[in-house]
User: Fold this.
Amino acid sequence: MSHRRDFIKKAALGTIGISTVLSCKELSVKDEAIAAKTVIKTQKKPLIISTWNHGLPANEATWKALKSGKSSLDAIEVGMKIPEADPTIRSVGYGGFPDREGKVTLDACIMDHNSDCGSVSFLQGIKHPISVAKKVLQNTPHVMLSGQGALQFALSEGFVEENLLTPEAEKDWKNWLEESKYKPVINIENHDTISMLVIDEDGNISGGCTTSGAAWKMHGRVGDSPIIGAGLFLDNEVGAAAATGLGEAVIRTAGSAMVVELMRQGKSPFEACKEIVERIYNKHKNHKDMEYLQVGFIAVNKSGEHAGYSLRSGFNYAVYDDKKGNRMEDAQFKMSWDN
Assistant:
């Protein structure tokens, strides 16, 4: 009887041993698969994603700067200066649509992987607000400077004041004055902000945002673009997000910060962007802004996965990586403009 017990015990132990070995092998296979996926994702470094079609030339300049050895912060500045200086882009920098008083007012922010950030709002007369925002980050103890104070700081840093209202933008403003109707419709001709997120060769994340804001806004209006946590937010341990569209709606929900927090909880960039767009919709579906409301987000996580999602159709973004180069991708959306 004792021999039989010993045999059963040994057989059981043997079975446990065999099953343990098999389990270890299965775990090993799973681990290898997970590792392979991780390798594939991390091969996407560096990665650049930016809003709208004016992101293409911005991405191109940023990519060249990264490849030449510049820091991601310097590279973002180089890229953002392209649309800021382009008078044909009517929602960023020089040539941007003015406010209802005919003044071109600019907002910008920039943020690095250490969560150091700089921002300017309601800045007038300086062509490159992204550069001033970077100087705020580097040379002041503050995060944001605004209005006349931002201008004074820019001049003290060697920036040159100039007229940013082009003849074309002035003509459009005067035509608008004939009816003075204000509807900040995003997508059609007013393509709004350019926001950019960058993962460098080391896997560190930085971001920037620059805009001349909504056309024909009230003098003094500031949107989400220069507000860390609204128009732009990142956590180098998690990922980054940036917004475009009606700034008031993004501010009300701390949009970009919320996208990053959802990614921290394990959601993919797409899932996080979609959930915050849904949240904005639910808060605004009976709101006076709903008729013309558009918001969109881009996001990237630490693994290099990226996505975009918008409330209404028409939002696209530019992506640049080693594998596929520089291209446009259409964001998925909740509803079309006809809804």
Notes: The mean pLDDT is 87. The longest strand covers residues 117-123.
